[in-house]
Amino acid sequence: MTKIGYIVGSIGSTSINRQLAEALVKLLPADVEAFEISIKDLPFFSTDLEADFPQVARDFKNQIESADGIIILTPEYNRSIPGVLKNAIEWASRPYGDFSFGGTPVAVIGASPGGIGTAAAQQHLKAVLSHVNAIVMGQPEGFVQVTPGLIENGDVTNEGTKAFLEGYLAAFLGHVARMQKAHA
Ligand code: FNR
């Protein structure tokens, strides 16, 4: 069974990216297991904390490394990624040289009420992920503009958006399978 982890780059309880994550997971095929890799309990990264690497950060790294592939849903804050998400990537990149995302297929998607659907944030996120050796899916890109009613009770209500998300997931699972084959 393929194991897909997902990271929501927002810690807000009413996060639209969390809503998108929940709707997206429901669209995965039955033979795919999805699990959340939470970032909300990670402390602010500091080199002072590295000598006694926090258990919560170890757990975070282990969860990343246990996944066959990871989907990151990022909000866009001030045309970039939220600090909480960057902080999580800092932890995943330490200790020095121990890149938990290294060799892992990763897809990026994001939701915003704004028209560009987190495109600017995703450009930054993809650059950071490439630096930490993730195998980032280039296409399709997932720019989701969340208008009122688009996601209701955990489901995407618009058929066109739903079909797009299904295609996006199929492409990502293909990306994951290619990487598994390459490393077999
Ligand atoms: C935003 N928002 C926003 N939206 C956008 O499309 N581009 C942007 O640059 C920003 N900048 C921004 C900065 C800050 C500090 C906040 C709080 C918000 C709006 C943002 O897309 C909206 O709040 C989403 O609901 C955030 O996603 P979550 O947290 O709901 O998943």
CATH class: Alpha Beta
- The figure for the number of domains is 1
Describe the global form: globular
Q: Please summarize the sheet with the most strands.
A: 6 strands, parallel
User: What is the terminal separation in angstroms?
Assistant: 15 Å
Number of helices: 5
Question: What's the mean pLDDT score?
Answer: 97
Q: Tell me the strand percentage band.
A: 15-25%
Corresponding CATH superfamily: Flavodoxin domain
The value of Rg in angstroms is 16 Å
Q: Unreliable segments (pLDDT under 50, ≥5 consecutive)?
A: none
Q: How does the helix and strand content classify structurally? A: alpha/beta
- The CATH architecture term is 3-Layer(aba) Sandwich
Protein name: NAD(P)H-dependent oxidoreductase
GO cellular component, one term: cytosol
GO molecular function, one term: oxidoreductase activity
Pfam families: FMN_red (PF03358)
Would you write up a description of this structure?
The protein is α/β, with parallel strands linked by helices. The protein has a single domain, classed as 3-Layer(aba) Sandwich (Rossmann fold), CATH 3.40.50. It contains five helices and eight strands. The strands form two sheets. Strands 1, 2, 3, 4, 5 and 6 form a six-stranded parallel β-sheet that branches. A two-stranded antiparallel ribbon has the order 7-8. The radius of gyration is 16 Å and the shape is globular. The chain starts with a strand and ends with a helix. The model has no long low-confidence stretch (mean pLDDT 97). It binds ligand FNR. Ligand FNR binds next to helix 1.
